[in-house]
Amino acid sequence: MLDVARIRRDFPILDQEINGYPLVYLDNAATTQKPRQMIEALVRYYETTNANIHRGIHTLAQRATEQYEGVREKVARHIGANNPQNIVFTRNATESINLVARAWGDANVGEGDEIVLSLMEHHSNIVPWQLLAARKGAVLRFVDVTDDGKMDLDDLRRKVGPKTKLVSVVHMSNVLGTINPVTEIAEIARRFGAVVVVDGAQSAPHVPLNVEALGCDFFAFSAHKMLGPTGVGVLWGRRDLLEAMDPFLGGGEMISVVREQASTWADVPHRFEAGTPNIADVIAFGASLDYLSDIGMENVRQHEIELTGYTIDQLQRLDGVRVHGPLSPEERGGAVSFSMEGIHPHDVSTIVDSYGVAIRAGHHCAQLLMRRLAVPATSRASLYIYNSESDIDALTAALRKAQKVFSDAGTRTAV
Amino acid sequence: MPVPEPQFDDLYREIILDHFRRPRNQGKLANPTQHAEGLNPVCGDEIVLDLAVRAGTIEDIAFSGMGCSISQSTASLLTERVKGSTLEEAEQVVAGMSAMLIDGAPPARELGDLEALQGVAKFPVRVKCALLSCKVLEEGIDEARNGTEAKETNS
Question: Which fold has domain A39-293?
Fold first, then answer.
C-alpha cells in the first residue's frame, strides 16, 4: 500500500481549494501533477547548471551534458531498455510517433502497403499514419474493439497480412483503460515481417515495463503524464532500425560532417535530436523518474489496481451510470470512462468542478472509439499515486448532485 | 465553517432543463429550403438545422444533433424564437446572443426566452455550447439570402 498522505505532501498544487472545496484531481490521463522534487530540480538546473550541451568544453557545459545524458540512462532503466543510446528525446509522445512515421515510414512504406491500427487509438496514433499513407499511397486498416472494450485479436489476425508494413497500437487505452496484449500482437505482426510501434503514453506512467521483452520495435511516451514537465517525449527504438533511419529534422547537434551540398549524420540517438533540446526539462524529468523508482512501479501498479477496482465499484452503485471498458482492474489501468443516463459529460464535468473535482469530459482525442462505443462523448476519471478512496467518494458525491440537478423531481434550491 | 453548496440556478435555469428534456422543433423538415450543420470539434456537440424560408421569412425550422444540455436547449429555444421571424429579425437574435454571451451585455429584448441562457456567460468553457446553434442559424440565413439573390439574378 502506498502512503498516499505522505506522497500528497510532495505535490504543492494539491493543497488548494477550487470553488471553495479541496481540489480532487482526477485528470491524470491528460497530465499528472508534479512533485516538488521535480520542480526543485528544474529551478536548480537554471540556478546552478544552465549551459548548452554536447558542444562546450567548459565545466558547466560538461555538467549539463552529464546530467542530460544521465536521464537517458534513467529512462532506459524505467522502461527496461538494455541500451540508453536507443532512447531519443522528443517534445512529446506525438512527436515520437511522427518521428517514426517520417524517418522510418517514408523509407519503408510504399504504394499499396498496409498500416494496421486499432479503433481505440488516440488521434496521435492515427493522424501521423494518415499523413504517411497520403504521402505514399498506403492503406490504413483498423482493428475492431470488442463490446467489452478489448482489442479484437481475431480481427487483428484478419487485418494483418503480407501487405502489412507496420502495426501501431496503444499499450493502455486513454479512454477505456484497457491494457492490450502487446506481446501477442507483436507476434502476429512479426509473422508478416511488420514493424510494431507501441503508444505507451498511458502505460509508461503506470505499469512496470520491459520494452525488450514486449516484442515491439518502437515505444513512445511523454514525460508530463508521469510527474515530469511538459515538453519532453521519449522514443525508444530497436538499434538496427534506428541506425538505418535518416534524420527526422535537420540542424545542429545531429550532424557529423557538414559540407556545402550534403552532410553526414551523427550517431543514434543524437541524429534525431536536432538543435538545442529541452535540456532543463529533460534533467528535471530525471527527478520524476527517481521519484517513481523510489516508490517502485510494482507498488504504483498495485495501488492503481486497488483504486481502479474501488472506482468502478462505486460508479456502478450509482443509478444510470455505465462504466466503459473492461471491469476487472487486473486487465486495465486507472483511466475510467463512464456515461450517465440523461446527462451529457460536459454537464457532468461542469457540476463536479463546482465541488472541486477535476475530471475530463469529451471524446478524449479518440473519435473513432467514440463512434464504436456509439456515444458522443464520455466522462473520465483517471487516477495516480496521490489519489485515494476519499477522492473517489468526493467524485461520486458530486455525481449524485449532478443527477439531482438533472432529475425531474429535483427542486432548484435543495441541490 | 461549512462550505456553501454551489448553486446551479444561474446555469441550469428550469426553462433550460425543460427544453433539454422536452426539445421543441426537434427533427427534420419535409421540404427545407436550407440545411446547415455545425460541429464543435473540441467537445463533439453537433447541431443540424433545416429551414423553410419563403419571402424572407423563416416559416418553419427544425433542429437535430446531439450534445450537452446547453447546446441542445439553446437550439430548442432558438428555433422556437425565430420561427415566423424575418431573416433580419433572426439575425438580430443571433447578434443579441453573441452580445450577451461574449460581451456580457444585458439580454436584448428580442431574445425572449433565450435570456435564460445569460448565466452561461459565467462559464467561459460553456459559451461555445450555446453559440453553436446560433452560428449554424447564421449560416442558414446567409445561404437563404444568397439563394434568393441567385434566383433573382437568374430570373
Answer: Aspartate Aminotransferase; domain 2 (3.40.640)
* CATH superfamily of the A4-30+296-406 domain: Aspartate Aminotransferase, domain 1 (3.90.1150.10)
Q: Do A376 and B70 touch (CB under 8 A)?
A: no
Distance CA A60, CA A48 (A): 8
The answer to whether A341 touches A408, Cβ cutoff 8 Å, is no
Give the active site residue among A7, A365, A385, A395: A365
3-class DSSP state for residue B38?
Answer: strand
Preferred mutation among A344, A367, A371, A405 to probe B, highest tally of B CBs within 10 A: A344
Q: Just give the CATH number of B14-149.
A: 3.90.1010.10
Are B49 and B137 a contacting pair, CB within 8 Å? yes
- Does the annotation count A365 as an active-site position? yes
Cβ neighbours around B108 below 10 Å, total: 16
How much is the CA Rg of chain A, to the nearest whole Å? 22
The string of pLDDT tens digits covering residues A140-192 is 999 999 999 999 999 999 999 999 999 999 999 999 999 999 999 999 999 99
Look up the pTM and report it.
0.93
SS3 for A206?
Answer: coil
Residues 122-151 of B with CB under 8 A from A: 123, 125-126, 129
B120 touches B9 (CB < 8 A): no
SS (H, E, C) A220-261: EEECCCCCCCCCCEEEEECHHHHHHCCCCCCCCCCEEEECCC
Residue B44 cell numbers, joined: 463533439
Residue-wise pLDDT tens digits, A36-94: 999 999 999 999 999 999 888 899 999 999 999 999 999 999 999 999 999 999 999 99
**Which cell goes with A108?**
519503408
Which residues of A lie closer than 8 Å to B, measured between beta carbons?
19-21, 342-347, 350-351, 354-355, 361-363, 367, 370, 376-377, 401, 405-406, 408, 412-413, 415
Biggest distance spanned by C-alpha atoms of chain A = 77
Residue to mutate among A347, A351, A403, with most B CBs inside 10 A, is A347
ipTM for the assembly: 0.86
Chain A residue numbers with beta carbons less than 8 Å from the beta carbon of B21 are 342, 408
**CA atoms of B20 and B18, how far apart (whole Å):** 5
